[in-house]
Design goal:
Elements: H1 11-15, E1 29-30, H2 42-53, H3 66-76, E2 83-86, H4 88-99, E3 104-108, H5 113-120, E4 125-129, H6 138-146, E5 152-156, H7 168-180, E6 184-188, H8 199-202, E7 209-214, H9 216-220, E8 226-229, H10 232-241, H11 249-261, H12 263-285, E9 290-292, E10 299-304, H13 309-318, E11 321-322, E12 324-325, E13 336-340, H14 344-357
Bound molecules: 4'-deoxy-4'-aminopyridoxal-5'-phosphate.
4'-deoxy-4'-aminopyridoxal-5'-phosphate (PMP) binds near residues 89, 216 and 221.
Amino acid sequence: MNRPPLSWIRSEILSMKGYSVLESPDGTIKLDAMENPFGLPEDVRSKLAREVSALSFNRYPDPHARELKEAVSKVIAIPPGRLFLGNGSDEVLLNVFLATSGTIVVPEPTFSMYRIIAGSIGRTFRGTDLLPDFSLDLDGVDRMLRDEPPGVLVLASPNNPTGLSLSMESIGAAHRIATKWGFTTLVDEAYFPFHGETVLQSLPEAETLLVLRTFSKMGLAGLRLGVLIASQTVIEMLDKIRLPYNMDALTQKAAAFLLRESLPLLNAQVQEIVDLREKMTREMAAISGVTPFPSRSNFILFRVEGPSPATVFRTLLAKGILVRDVSGHHPLLSGTLRVTVGTGGENRTFLAALKEGMKS
Ligand code: PMP
């Protein structure tokens, strides 16, 4: 039988738009991906090289990533039995979505991978709009959950690409609504290091609360280490479907070493990024036609008036600066772009180019 080409691929996948990562030629000032711009100093790098050179690459890694889990447990002060590690928090999300049933409900605009991962495994996904000030529309969430088979409500705080956090009261209220309709709440705290507030203090150990963290934003994006904090029972369920050896030997050894040895350094870099963010927000607000949103993360969403976001994006790129034009992602984001906080020098270059670009 002759089948049309690609008819063996699921139709949702054929029509799906994948996650796009922008090309960045060498020398580009990369302010598009919420990375820590500082990197590690030479002495830490050489110690790290010695650590990983002793690994047995012919052997499978520890399937339970015990050493790394122990290190993560110390950093976030949660027992290892309540942690699930993934190859980035993206992989953790995939495992949560694979293990759960019902509809995945997400207030939007938000991180596009929730929709992409849900779609890739055939899960029903519903977006519900945030209010124009990017806070939660609790009535909207209530109406949506009432009408859907109970699944997972995902809340990102601080949110991407808005950079804003949700208030603890509104997260608590959303969690109560979710519980009322039989939904589990997953709070994605990817940007926690730059915000400092966590639901772990206000909603400790609830069975229906999952908290997602990542070490990407504070400086380990290249190692791919995401963490879910949940009850021990939930972790046991997720462990059943986790692919064996999902954490490779390099990540296990390098991340455990860096969390043990270099946490003060990473925390100092985070604090510097927070200071630079505040300075950058003030300086952006002083540019005519630019309105930055007050960020609780390591990036800033800003609205431009005059030139279009596409024009601003192109002008910046022509000067070797890569940001993200998010204006087409959702109606509430019209006129906006997102810029990651870089080093002091990178930010100055960006600000000068933006000022220039706003005149065009
Ligand atoms: N959650 C949010 C809100 C994000 O913005 C991102 C990265 N852009 C992630 C999760 C995924 O991060 P990682 O896979 O690097 O842990």
